[in-house]
Amino acid sequence: MRKSYFFNTLIGAIVVIIIGNTPAQAQFLKKLGNQVKEAAQQGVEQAATNHAVNDAGNTTDKAISKGENAIKDIKKNKSNNNNSANNSENNNTSANTSTLSPESSASAAEGEPTLATFTNYDFVPGDSIIFESNLADEQSGEIPSQFTLLEGQMDVQNINGENVIRTVQGGTITFTPRMTTTSYMPDQFTVEFDIMNQQWGLNHFNIDFGHRVYYSGGEGILPGIRFGIHDVTWSDINITGTYPEPLDKLTNGAPMKWHHVAIAINKTQGKVYIDQYRVLNVNNLTGKPNNVTFNVSGYEDSYIKNIRVAAGGIDIYKKITTESRIIMHGILFDVDKATLKPESMGSINQIFNLMQKDPSLKFEIDGHTDNTGNAAHNLTLSQQRADAVKEQLVKMGIDASRLTTKGFGDTKPIDTNDTPEGKANNRRVEFVKM
């Protein structure tokens, strides 16, 4: 009976602690402590006089110990929860601190980009990079120095050890790369970036090329692109591309998930890609592009990184007949690693198709880096990256005997290493005809 009374009392205490902690509850816990001690003492006395009861007493002692530990754990968890709540509150009141972390492990697994999911990807970036964002040395909470903020609020935030641009919830945010002139775009170009939203995966932002999407006028300027909840629309010509079902599910059900956006324009032709999907393809564009401007509606915090603008486009079939090498900037790797990024498949697919059509073709795959870091390390890294490209092509069905590899590190730059754009041009993979 006494053990039953003790356990009932103990359970009641745990419930009280879970619900809250008031002065009355504190008195109750103090009284409980005395009862626990009394029960334990009686258990010891009974153990001294009766061996059978001693076994029961040992069981009771263990139960008491577990009960006390449970109480301690509950108090500890409650304290940690209170601390977490306080920390969260402090973060929410700081204008210079991002309070959100990217997707949970569950949502990260769903729709996670891989080389396999990008198997049919055919986007290839321009062959000369004219703008490349580099936020590594930017201060958190400051406006990124590479951009001109035209309206709204934006700053640099660190997410999972990486600096990214945050556009702050509130009014419309408009920004553009800081260039020496306001009109710098060629007729043929590509734009790439990664974006994620606080709640909606893809929504309420536009990309303009010299004239705001919703403004009147803009005659003679290439129309901009509107990204919505379920589709993408090329303004003025009002052609809309609907998201494929898997992408639509992710963009509406997976907040804080990065999406890769790629845009390719060649005079009247335009294509828009989101992740591995081509969602819009038009051939009746008019007007000239002046620049690239990001316009975010500000319904929520949004995050943007890896902005790249490149001029031109590679026609590898012409290249291989007129030149001995093909230079590709679209084969990308994780930072300081030889791990291929999924969006590299557009460029790799081009080489694969070329070699499939002409079985006599053989290439030396050359890896090149910029001059960041140690020269010996860069030499090794460039070799590993060249090997990774060969490995992927062999997996796709190209005979290994048709490919060799060589890493040059930073010994053969084709541009300056003094600017982010120059460094990006120097980071490349070349296919040299053998």
TrEMBL record:
InterPro entries: Bact_OuterMem_StrucFunc, ConA-like_dom_sf, OMP_bac, OmpA-like, OmpA-like_sf. Residues 320-434 form the OmpA-like domain. Residues 75-110 are annotated as: Disordered. One of its GO terms (cellular component) is cell outer membrane. Residues 79-110 have a biased composition (Low complexity). GO terms for molecular function: hydrolase activity, hydrolyzing O-glycosyl compounds. It comes from the Bacteria. Keywords: Cell outer membrane, Membrane. It holds the Pfam family OmpA. The keyword Lipoprotein does not apply. One of its GO terms (biological process) is carbohydrate metabolic process. This is OmpA family protein. It is found in: Cell outer membrane. Signal peptide: none annotated.
